[in-house]
Amino acid sequence: MKTFRIGGIHPAPDKITAGKLIVAVAPSGQLRILLSQSIGAPAKPVVKAGDTVLPGMMIAEAGGFVSAPVHSPCAGTVAKIEKIRNTKGLWQEAIIINVDEQADQNVPERPRTPEEIEALTADRLIGIISDAGIVGLGGATFPTRVKLSVPEGKKAEYIIINGAECEPYLTCDDAIMRIHATEIIRGAELLKRASGAEHIIVGIEANKPEAIDAMRQAAAQYAGVDVVKLKMKYPQGSEKQLIDSLTGRRVPPGKLPIDVGCIVDNVATAFAVYEAVYLGKPLTHRVLTVTGPEVADAGNFLVPFGLSLASIIDRAGGLPDDTGKVIAGGPMMGQAVADLDAPNAKGTSGILIIPAKMSERKPTGPCIRCAKCVDACCMGLEPYLLMTLAQNALWEEAKKHSAMSCLECGSCSFICPADRPILDFIKLAKSRIKAMK
Amino acid sequence: MSVITVSILILGITGIIAAVVLYIVAKKFHVYENPDIARIEEILPGANCGACGFSGCHAFAKACAEAKSLEDLQCPGAGQEGMEQIAAIRGLTAGTLTRRVAIVGCNGACAYRHEATHYDGVRSCAIEAGYYGGETPCVYGCLGCGDCVSVCPHDAIAMDDETHLPVVDFSKCVGCGKCADACPHNVIEIATLSDEHPLVYVACRNKDKGGIAIKECDVSCIGCGKCKRACPVDNAVTVSEFLAHIDPALCIGCEKCVEECPRHSIHSLTV
Amino acid sequence: MNNLTVSLSPHIHSRNSITREMWNVIIALIPALAVAIWTFGLPALAVIAVCLATCVLCEWLIVRFLFHRPSTIADGSAIITGLLLAFNLPASIPLWMAAVGSVVAIAIAKMSFGGLGRNIWNPALTGRVFLLISFPAAMTTWPEGVASGVAHISGASAHANSGATLLTTLNAHPGMDLDSVNILNLLTGNMNGSLGEVGSLAIIIGLIYLLATKTIKWQIPVSILASAAFFSFIFGGNPLLDLLAGGLMLGAVFMATDYVTSPMTAKGQIIYGILIGMITIIIRRFGSYPEGVSFAILLMNSFVPLINRYCRPRVFGERRAAK
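YS: structure for the whole thing
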């Protein structure tokens, strides 16, 4: 079985919701849609208070090259455009829409015929993907259009479809692969055409046999599509590690996957591309996993953007009495939520609710130089050293020791027998090094 | 020859050779340094706090030893007295010391500002601020982890156990600004004290609209502008982004705004 | 509902803890402990008890009254130091010497650097070497009458019965005939020596346990043993004898692998291991001490920061030439 070559850890998978179907959640009440849902510039609103919006209508346009437009997931009227708190409790601009619950909330389909799709040029495809507001749905929310625009002098050879889903607990990608395998492969074919790549490789961790079977069946109809079973090891789904696992190529520090001829897209992104091109539907909903040891009806939900996390959790049986921490995303790289009224956005791949006992960190001990963090680091760094450098504010030294290569996967903090907050300090070092420039 | 004589001879000769080598090296690599520098450095506190504007006490001593006038050179750590001593060494006159102190621009004690979340990470303001706005709804105020305390070279700042806010010991603070640099929310600022009037400052950083700010903290500035209206000096108090600002250059220290402020977020300080 | 807890990622943690790692080592030491008591009887038990008690007490006193910090006894590191020090002493050593060695190990070698994780030299070995230099006679006198394994060596039985280890004998009589040495005796502890070094088989069981629980990695023990066997062969010795008789197994498995005083990267660990093996054999062949493991390990402990500096892991995607 294929895997990446250095580092990695083996957290318990805890995929409580594996095998669950996708339950659709209808928009209701008020949707508060953040303008900044992707990396890069926030989108610019093209509606104003009082405007009527329809499902799938663009409500904000891209605010720059690295930016993505935002579409309304519902029918209703724009109440106002104001700053609201995001999941971290920080203020961010959002469009508030009062949902018209009488109206049809389905995003209308404008299907293209096979001939039309056949006739689309690469530029036109990238245009459609861009207009649909598609960003990387694995969590990084990098606009897909930017990835597909291969710079002059470089060539894309592989489209890598990321179905690793190495984060514990999360099963949304698994669910999409089991249920929409054909659509994902079609989406991947479109990505291949748009970028001029030659091969498609789908990488899936071995703990998702049903997804692997479904994807293999769907891929059988196409030439040049490989579905590869990957060893269970975190962070298998990290872009650079996945490229290493599947192609044996290594992205040099500070370079992008395209520099080694690869473009990596999440399965959910490929599915969104399919919907945009085949059905003419922009990105207004996403599948996310609501899970946790105490959650009553944990499951995978198809949720419109802009619903508050609290109302999504209600669909999964409500917030358990024993709630210590709520995490947007997975337990390894997700962000602890400070405000449950904050809306979900394109990057929210899951809501993990963990009980109080599991959410407190244990007291920190002294570094015993066991080197477990060095062995676990998949980027070949020395986390213990970076932490010490950051504690002593030696930012230049930290930069020399490649702090900027850190993926923030969290393996070092996870493995540390002394419970040292290694990643906290590496993140601090990274932000200081960025500020130095 | 007995063993003892041989041992003494060998050790003696080794000692003499070493002494000669050391002497030659010391002569050859001798660097002349103005003796004033060492004498001045003895007067300085040696905290290397940088309040003087130099990289450290040695650099400041060097500057004092070489300067033609001491008018612009000040070490608040050594104080007026110390500067007089330095002036005596150089045979010059010392300037008048400008008294600067660190002031805490947040009054949001635990009793006024309620926790909405519980931060369980490293007790470091820098790391906490890198993630989110803090445990209370106010994302502008003091985070309470005490980064300012750990950087202070003069041991002049401490966290109050009850309010979880830093408290400056003005008898020790020299206004070097290390705490102000360390504060990720820029809550701490360095202010110049005046001999004539008290220092009046806004002890709030909240830029949210009044309606929101009022909910976030009991002593937040809501930008109501009463202070601006009460102020007898034009433009000494301005309100922008729902937050009052006092221009220290124009403030006459009448304390009218302190009395008027309905939120008790303007304070006055006499050291 | 209580306030939500917020912290930076990751939000889950492995079940690793310092205590767990240390207790794994203690468990791995149990077979060797049993062999020591079986071979040397009550005196061994007394030495072990004194070392353990002194180490733990010493650490507790220093942490409590000098550092004013919560007790660190429960993490098990002082227990390991005590056990390992006892394993490095002859059963016949006066008990007060064992106590002095324990104080040196904890107070000087460990706590004076700031406690667990900060020491440069292995505490137990520092204690042992201190005793070896201060009380050479007591440290190289072995109990009589237990050395049936040694007694089997033709022509060396006189030495053996007067309480010499196989290596001492070998050091004094380089040309002696080794064909009759019973390897089985060396494996099962039927020979003379320090408490912990006599039962090679027990140490191997401990090694397997440590590897299985991923407490240590294979690099250090394997490279030490391989290098020692290689250099023993080069210098005309009997590799098997060099590995099994004496403290090499104990050193390679439990002493050199001490987290704090060994290198961080696999490459560094192999270099460290090879050099320990080499120095050990050089001391055994060309030095006046019959045993060289302690010195070799302490010497290499000093080089660990240097090894760490030059054996960095390679950053992902960085080319070798880019260095």
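YS: worth flagging: Residues 18-139 of chain C form one domain.
IM: good catch. Also Chain C has a mean pLDDT of 85.
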